[in-house]
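Annex B, item 7. Sequence and structure tokens for protein A, then protein B.
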Amino acid sequence: MIDPLDYTMENLLNMLLSRIPDTLDKREGSVIYDALAPAAHELASLYESMANQFEQCFIETATGNALDMRCGELGVTRRAAVKAIRLGYFYDESNAPYEVTVGMRFATIDGSNSINFQVMEQVESGVYHLEAETAGASANAYEGELMALQYTEGLAKAEIKGEPVIDGSDAEDDDTLRARYFYHITDEPANGNCAQYLQWALEYPGIGKAKVFPRWNGVNTVKVSILASDDEPASVDLVSKFQAYLDPNSGGMGQGVAPIGAQVTVTTATEKTINVSFTAQLNSDLLETNANSLVTVAISEYFKDSAYRKSKVYYMEVGAAILSVEGIESVSDLKINNGSIDIDLTSEEIPVLGQISMEVAS
């Protein structure tokens, strides 16, 4: 393995100069020194590049396209970004539903973060499915007015409301792809075993995590419970589409990818609300309002990471999440759901943050 620290310009220059007889002038500023210094600089850059290329040869350290190529050798491919589908509502000047044309384009009124949507199909009078023109999770959160990108006579108001019909998701990151690769080689998916159902789920666009329950309702029954790519309960549309992909109507007829005879049911998680209260000692640099929002983010991230991975909400881990916020020096009187013990989760429950009550110690 090449360590670029062993091949710095200074080290390389000294190695080159050591091969020149001492009877010749090789001091800094001499002709020989000045001739070798640029070569040493280029060689140092070359060794650094070689070290980087060496790391791209291994799954553990490869990134980007190099990781894609290595994973592709075993048929593991990076999940592409998914475009969000949202519900758009359109009104005329009398606030009655307005019929727009499929293919029309609208933009969110969101400054530099504006996202363009295209009308895909009508749901009911004045209500349409809109597809984000750019794939990714950024189109999931916006609610509010839309601006038409072309003049539309009679259209007075356009807006996006409600949860996404299909969640947009970002392209799979390197760490997640790498984890799927190692899962693939250690738990070989084949012949409809549990590993293969997990593989089908984790490769399906829009799915983030999954659990498999064999024989959950008798012989030849399989339940696959999924989460969306943001580790939240999957939408009805995603559950329905993945059900059709595996086993339409749970018929076990082999009309999906599941083997003949396997009656597959796709479900998603239910949320268990976790309320948190505590007293915190803050340092002088952290304002109480900032602390509250930072704690909310820290606990929410812990819950998302725990989803479908842990069977409990651990009291001490909630405390650790709070203490991970820079500026919180200590925590006391911590309660989760009015208690100071771990909270059990059923096999298809995920924790979500409810109310946070923080008192600041004087």
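Protein B:
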Amino acid sequence: MSEQGKQFCIKCGKEIIVGAEFCSQCGARQSEFQATQTNLTNKKLGLKGSLNLFFDDLLVTNTRMNRANYWWAQLGLFLMSFIISFVVGFFGGLTNYSNLYFFLLFFASVYYVIIAIGGISTSIRRLHDTGKSGWLFLLNLIPLIGYIALIILYCQPSIMKEEGYQIAQ
């Protein structure tokens, strides 16, 4: 099903009637820009599609990533990391640190570096989608409080601004 011709509330993100002046869910007034905007956020892709989007846009920070795709990608990365860690640990215990173990350890290390770099760009894209600056990612430098603040920001609905970032396809 196509996302064309749909309009979403700029405050709560719920689908509303195209051209509506107010949201039927939260009552927020819709801006003039919103009335002409179609397809507020990129399509919700699910687990596999979100992981593909994560790896396709690994180094891209000037776009947006909607809330559903962000959390699906995080779940997929967690599952992949769990499996890789299990395999490396399993073979490490069986092989008494053979060449296979060191190969798997190297593979896992490369994977985690790629995930760290992609995680930064994905977080910045998620912040852009909430209407915030990507520089807020530096809140991670504040122990505990920064992490909590970013999780709260990542959970915010998408906000489309006229001068905002483009939508990742």
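Comment on protein B: The chain has a mean pLDDT of 83.
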